[in-house]
Amino acid sequence: MLTVISGGQTGPDRAALEAATATGTPYGGWCPKGGWAEDLPQPPGVLVIYPKLRETPSTAPEQRTDWNVRDSAALVVLVGQGGLAVSMGTQRAVRHAESLGKPVAIVDVSKPDAIGQALAFLTPFVDEPACIAGPRESEAPGLQTAARRVLEPVLTEMASKR
C-alpha cells in the first residue's frame, strides 16, 4: 500500500488528508506539533500531517520535515504557478531529499498533465512511502483545492494497483 508522508500543515498536506479521506486511504503522521497518530500502526499505511495527532512540543519544524523526508522513498512537491520560490520550507524538503539521494518530482498542479505526472512518478512506489510537500496556502492561495483535484484521482488509481 502506498504510504504518503507530509511535512507540515500546508495546502498540499490538507489536500492529501482530504483526498485520503475521500478515497478511503488511511492517513496519519507528523503533525505541526509533532507526534504519530495514536490509532495508526508504525509505519502507517498513508500518512498526512494534521493537528489531530498527539503533541510532542520538543520537535522543531525543520526536524519534522527532515524525518518525513527521511522516512520516505521519494518526495512529491505540489506547487502552483509560483513554484518552489514561494516556500522556504518546501525548498528545505527538496534539498534534504536530494542530499539523501531520494527521487524528487515537482508537480505544478495548475498544469493539465499534473495528474499524469504525479501518477507516473508515484507508480513505482505503490508499496513504499512517498512524501507529499508543498507551500502553505498563505504562500500559494488556492493550492489546497488544486492539489486535492490532483491527489484524489492519483490516490484512487494507486489504490487500484495494490
- What is the CA-atom radius of gyration, in angstroms? 14 Å
Could you say which structural class the secondary elements and strand pairing correspond to?
alpha/beta
Query: What oligomeric state do these chains adopt?
Result: single chain
**SS summary, helix count:** 5
Termini separation: 6 Å
Approximate helicity band? 25-40%
State the strand order across the main sheet: 1-4-2-3
Main sheet specs? 4 strands, parallel
**Mean pLDDT reading:** 77
Overall shape: it is globular
- Count of DSSP strands: 4
Order of helices and strands: EHHEHEHEH
**Spans with pLDDT under 50 lasting ≥5 residues?**
32-55
Into which percentage range does the β-strand content fall? 5-15%
Secondary structure layout plus pairing:
Layout: E1 3-6, H1 11-23, H2 61-70, E2 74-79, H3 88-99, E3 104-108, H4 114-122, E4 129-133, H5 143-160
Parallel strand pairs: 1-4, 2-3, 2-4
Helix pairs in contact: 1-5, 2-3, 4-5
Description:
This protein is α/β, with parallel strands linked by helices. The protein contains five helices and four strands. Helix 3 links the parallel strand 2 (74-79) and strand 3 (104-108). Helix 2 (61-70) packs across helix 3 (88-99). The longest helix is centred in the last third of the chain and has 18 residues, at 143-160. The N and C termini lie close together (6 Å).
Outline:
The chain is an alpha/beta fold and 162 residues long. 38% of the residues lie in helices and 12% in strands.
Descriptive key words:
162 residues, alpha/beta, four-stranded parallel β-sheet, 5 helices
